[in-house]
Amino acid sequence: MEIPQIPFFKGNIKNSLVTILFFLLLLLTIGKKYTYLFKIEPLKSGVTYVWIIIALIAVYFMMYLFTDVKGILYYSSPLKFSYFVLLLIRLVIIVPIEEEIVYRGLLLLVPYKKIKYLMLVVSSIIFALIHDDPLKIIWLALGLGILGIRFNNIWIPIIAHGLWNLFVSFFAFKI
């Protein structure tokens, strides 16, 4: 069985930071009514982190039940340490902020509340389609979206997404 390698950078950090700044400015210029998305109060509660862990475990079990994932394998990276650290910074911090602002922020939490569940499906499908294995990633997208709706906050899916990326940086799914 072949263990997948950690993906190389897709784009550069400078472009990602510009994208993050653009969407943050867009959200802030839309109006003060969306500042609740960035409140840190939910981060102070231990219940929030229990929700994150439960959601990520549920995502794994949905992948296990409905895709070809049949377990987890630990693997060590063949990359040089400095490159691996830069890759982790990108995968655990920059990419989650970038993707969550777009897919959970602008597409899910900003639109009118009556269509939030429709937008959960739409944003999850779009998120899954930009990744290599959409049938697996749709479960992660739905889990992150549910966390976003539950807490009405963008930081929670960002943290969950970062933890997921950290996990898959050290463990491979056995198929």
What's this, in brief?
This protein has 175 residues and is mainly α. The protein has one domain (49-174). Helix content is 66%, strand content 5%.
Strands, helices and their partners?
Layout: H1 13-30, H2 46-66, E1 71-74, H3 81-109, H4 116-129, H5 134-151, H6 155-170, E2 171-174
Antiparallel strand pairs: 1-2
Provide an overview of this structure.
A two-stranded antiparallel ribbon has the order 1-2. The protein is globular. Helix 1 runs parallel beside helix 3, helix 2 (46-66) packs antiparallel against helix 5 (134-151) and helix 3 runs antiparallel to helix 4. It is mainly alpha-helical. The chain has helices spanning 13-30, 46-66, 81-109, 116-129, 134-151, 155-170; strands at 71-74, 171-174. It has one domain (49-174). The protein starts with 12 loop residues before the first helix and ends with a strand. It contains six helices and two strands.
Which tags fit this structure?
6 helices; globular; disordered N terminus
Instruction: List how many beta strands DSSP finds.
Output: 2
Strand order of the largest sheet: 1-2
Mean pLDDT: 85
- How many domain units? 1
Q: What is the overall silhouette?
A: globular
SS content category: mainly alpha
Using the CA coordinates, give the radius of gyration. 16 Å
